[in-house]
TrEMBL record:
UniProt protein name: Branched-chain amino acid transport system ATP-binding protein
Gene3D superfamilies documented for this protein: P-loop containing nucleotide triphosphate hydrolases
Claim: ATP-binding is one of the keywords in the record: yes
Occurrences of domain ABC transporter (ranges): 7-255
One Pfam family recorded for the sequence: ABC_tran
GO terms assigned for molecular function: ATP binding
Organism ancestry: Bacteria, Bacillati, Bacillota, Bacilli, Bacillales
Keywords associated with the record: ATP-binding, Nucleotide-binding, Transport
Species whose genome carries this gene: Anoxybacillus andreesenii
Stored InterPro entries: AAA+_ATPase (IPR003593), ABC_AA/LPS_Transport (IPR051120), ABC_transporter-like_ATP-bd (IPR003439), BCA_ABC_TP_C (IPR032823), P-loop_NTPase (IPR027417)
Length: 264
């Protein structure tokens, strides 16, 4: 018997004024899967992430995590329920150190109370110390532990991307959403990132949903792929099925034609 899905998206849609940015979107993700979400520019991918994380409230449909409805929850509540994300444009706390960027994520889940923090009670110190140790452990996995006290903004681009993933993971998600993690990376950095994503998935027994323009990355690591175009789901299936799907080919050819029109 098949296990019930970790995430179930049922007929979800959202309108911005007259524009249907996403409509009738359905998706099921099971524990441990690594799923790709692709589509031409403006297809609605980031809007889906914003719907899943409480940034937008769906105009229609339901989003369920472990069978519990998430619609209407604020982003921090969604994080507490188990969904963390990274952003297309890196959003780190630039002026904070690498270590503090990760500690902030732990703070959102910290067990010790605000009162004990204010009055610096012993429970606070054990909480703070534990948090610091865990953060450093995490940063080691991402090979960022030699930069613990460096300001985030001073890290090279590829490392900033890794720090964003580390911070999202520190919140202890059941489902990790990665929005174009390889954007702006060179082929070598992209290859390393692919290995890192595969590694953290194993290590933390994670479930991952990934938006990515880099087809090699998507096809190389995702088991199943969902394809959006103009806010509609046009295909879903294995990388092979998606590669040869007529609607997908048409959508991407349309995008190439539009790009060459702009360039030409
Ligand atoms: N807050 C908003 N208000 C109005 N329109 C929006 C808003 N957010 C997104 N849209 C529109 O919704 C559509 C889908 O945008 P979205 O950013 O989700 O696409 P995308 O697939 O992530 O694109 P890209 O690959 O270029 O990042 C676009 O037409 C966009 O202009």
């Amino acid at each position: 018997m098949q296990q019930s899905p970790l995430l179930k998206v049922h007929n979800v849609g959202i309108n911005f004024g007259g524009l249907k940015a996403v409509s009738d979107f359905n998706m099921e993700i099971h524990q441990g899967e690594l799923i790709g979400l692709i589509g031409p520019n403006g297809a609605g991918k980031t809007t889906c992430f914003n719907l899943l994380t409480g940034v937008y409230i769906p105009t229609e449909g339901d989003i369920l995590l472990e069978g519990i409805r998430l619609n209407g929850l604020a982003p921090y509540q969604v994080t507490q329920r188990g969904i963390s994300r990274t952003f297309q444009n890196i959003r780190l706390f630039n002026e904070l150190s690498v270590l503090d960027n990760v500690k902030v994520a732990y703070h959102s889940l910290a067990k010790h109370s605000i009162l004990s923090s204010i009055f610096r009670l012993p429970t606070h110190f054990s909480g703070e110390k534990e948090m610091e140790e865990k953060s450093i452990e995490f940063l080691k996995i991402f090979q960022l532990d030699t930069f613990l006290y460096e300001k985030a903004k001073n890290l090279p681009y590829g490392m900033q991307r890794r720090l964003e993933i580390a911070r999202a993971l520190a919140a202890g998600p059941k489902l990790l959403l990665l929005d174009e993690p390889a954007a702006g990376m060179n082929p070598q950095e992209t290859q390393e990132l692919m290995e890192l994503i595969a590694f953290v998935r194993e290590r933390f027994n994670l479930t991952i949903l990934l938006i990515e323009h880099d087809m090699k990355l998507v096809m190389g690591i995702c088991e199943r792929i969902y394809v959006l175009d103009h806010g509609q789901l046009i295909a879903k299936g294995s990388p092979n099925e998606i590669r040869n799907h007529p609607k997908v080919i048409e959508a991407y050819l349309g995008e190439e034609a539009a790009e060459s029109h702009v360039e030409g």
